[in-house]
Write a structure and sequence with these properties.
255 residues, mainly alpha, 10 helices
Length: 255
Amino acid sequence: MPTSLHVMIALALLLAGFVKGVLGLGLPTVAIGLLATRMPPAQALAIVIVPAIVTNIWQTFAGHYLRDIVRRLWPLMAGTLAGILLGGGLMTGPYARLGTLVLGILLMVYAIIGLRQLHFTVAPAHEKWVGGIVGLITGVISAATGIQVIPSMPFMQAIGMEKDELVQALGVFFTTATLGLAFNLTDAGLLGAATALPGSIAMAGAFIGMAIGQQVRGRMNAVTFRRWFLIAMILLGLYLAGSTVMSLISTPHAG
């Protein structure tokens, strides 16, 4: 792996860690989105997976709601794990090239939902079965792209989780999902010695970025930062989707 790519990994994870430090989420979304401009999503996920797991474990225990979160979200998490395992070949199989296209579309959908501040409501009586279905869909999407925010995050907001509980719930859920993805990557032979150095660079970048983000969180207008972050996600999504479509169009004429 060339030095320039190591530098890009460090910068991408520094930015992704900064976003997570400020907002409490976004590390895999930002990191995979940026790295996917230079490599397949499966390779990007293999580099990001360990920093994602470690930072999410930290977020999982940074609160007092763990028991209630597990009680309410176990169908969502179980469904997500099932979807990840069912979609195990999507990121590396014959349709792997479409992963970048789907990733770009999902980044745009995620950002538009955030910018429009769309709110959904799920009644307590329906939380369990809706959560299972949402989890299954999230798992399949995650298996194809490495991204777990759609439709899981709108669901967690729809069941009425408050700010602090939601931040911890995201840590619990993302830890579960990334462990499932790590199993898929290991099964596909993508986690090994080749990812040790870039993974270590990613880990260092993520923690430095998070530390900086946490320091500036109190001094920064979080609403304004989140708005520009979501706009940047739309632009990144457009680039990923557009470049993939152009590649798919030009490929038949390559020979």
